[in-house]
């Protein structure tokens, strides 16, 4: 059974400023004081899991154990069926150590090599972990397709090349509030809130 978060400090187990900003914005309605793992000087654990769920749990537990506070971690990525599901859990690694997502998007386009199947979906898994080792995990997805060249300077990661199903703007072109309403992270977040924050 999911454990309720009743308020106070919550570590956001990420060193990605874009992800920290997005998750903090989603937490605004709740009695949460978010603290980024980077600002707390927590080390960034190596993501050795073979699934989004495994990596989210690994990051959340590492932050909760080190900080002695509840911690929320996200593992997310772009899944492209025509590339056998890549980049998937390696989405951040495709950007290299300097997190160059312009290069990562170009690599996706290069690997597609003119393939007309441009279906893609984003996955986000949120894990809320506690210092005693308890974890609750929630998965969200958003379907869409890839465009080239990338469009827009909002968002982060692969957002400028992802066009959500039924939309005309990429995640890189959308206002943050519009993206939050339909994103993979918002989908997972709604499940997290219903289980751990509501009531």
Q: What's the gist of this structure?
A:
This protein has 199 residues and is α/β, with parallel strands linked by helices.
Would you kindly provide a written description of the structure presented here, covering whatever features stand out?
Helix content is 30%, strand content 23%. It is α/β, with parallel strands linked by helices and 199 residues long. It has a single domain, classed as Maf protein (Alpha-Beta Complex). It has a 6-stranded mixed β-sheet. Helix 1 links the parallel strand 1 and strand 2. Helix 4 crosses helix 5. It is globular and about 50 Å long.
Give descriptors for this structure.
single chain, 199 residues, alpha/beta, Maf protein, six-stranded mixed sheet, 6 strands, 23% strand
Number of helices: 5
Structure class:
alpha/beta
Distance between the terminal alpha carbons, to the nearest Å? 14 Å
The figure for the number of domains is 1
Helix content: 25-40%
Spatial order of the strands forming the largest sheet: 2-1-3-4-5-6
In the CATH scheme, the class would be: Alpha Beta
Which regions have little confidence, pLDDT < 50, spanning 5+ residues? none
The succession of helices and strands, N to C, reads: EHEHEHEEEHH
**Overall geometry:** globular
Strand runs, count: 6
- How large, in whole angstroms, is the Cα Rg? 16 Å
Largest sheet composition = 6 strands, mixed
The amount of beta strand, in percent, is 15-25%
CATH architecture: Alpha-Beta Complex
- CATH-defined topology: Maf protein
